[in-house]
Write a structure and sequence with these properties.
With about 170 residues, the chain is an alpha+beta fold. The protein is about 30% helix and about 25% strand. The longest helix has about 50 residues.
C-alpha cells in the first residue's frame, strides 16, 4: 500500500505548528521595532505637513496631542496627533478652541504613544516658524524606549533614535 498513515500526518502537522509558533515568538521584537518606526515616521510627516500648510494658507496651524479624542496636557501620553488651523488670519490673539478647524488627524499604531515635552501646543506661524522660535520635541513610542521627533524653529523635522540630541 502506498501513502501515509494518520499518525505520520498528525506528527508532521504538530511539528509544523511548533515551528511556526517559535517563528512568531522570534519575530515579535522585529514587529515592535517596525511599529515604533512607523509611529515615529507618521508623527514626523504630520509635523512637516502642518508646517507646509501654514506656509501655503497663510494661517497659523496648531498641533495637539490627543488621548481618545480629548486634548491632553504637555507631558501626558496620547495616541493621536491633530492639526488644526485658525478660521481667521489673526495669529497674535489668544486662540479660542471653537475658532480652530481640524485639518488632519493621525492615530499612532497600537501600543504606541506620543508625548509633547514643551508646555502649550505647537503652533506654526504663516512664515513656517514655530510660535516662540524654539525647538519642539515629541517623544514617540512606549515608555521604556521612545524615539524623539524634533521640530527645529525654521528648518527640518528630525527623528532621533533615542531621546537625546538635536536636529543637525
Amino acid at each position: 500500500m502506498r501513502g501515509y498513515t494518520l499518525m505520520e500526518l498528525m506528527v508532521t502537522v504538530a511539528l509544523l505548528m511548533m515551528m511556526s509558533a517559535m517563528t512568531a515568538v522570534g519575530l515579535q521584537p522585529v514587529h515592535a521595532r517596525f511599529r515604533l518606526r512607523l509611529a515615529t515616521d507618521s508623527a514626523a510627516q504630520l509635523l512637516v505637513r502642518a508646517r507646509q500648510r501654514a506656509l501655503e494658507t497663510g494661517r497659523c496651524h496648531h498641533v495637539e496631542v490627543l488621548s481618545d479624542g480629548v486634548p491632553v496636557a504637555s507631558g501626558a501620553p496620547g495616541d493621536t496627533l491633530r492639526v488644526s488651523r485658525r478660521r481667521d488670519a489673526d495669529c497674535e490673539s489668544r486662540v479660542d478652541p471653537i475658532a480652530l478647524v481640524e485639518v488632519e488627524r493621525v492615530r499612532l499604531p497600537e501600543r504606541m504613544t506620543v508625548r509633547q515635552e514643551s508646555l502649550g501646543s505647537l503652533v506654526f506661524r504663516p512664515t513656517g516658524r514655530t510660535w516662540n522660535n524654539a525647538a519642539w520635541r515629541f517623544l514617540v513610542g512606549p515608555e521604556e524606549g521612545p524615539r524623539a521627533v524634533v521640530v527645529a524653529p525654521l528648518g527640518p523635522v528630525c527623528t532621533l533614535e533615542g531621546i537625546e540630541g538635536d536636529c543637525p
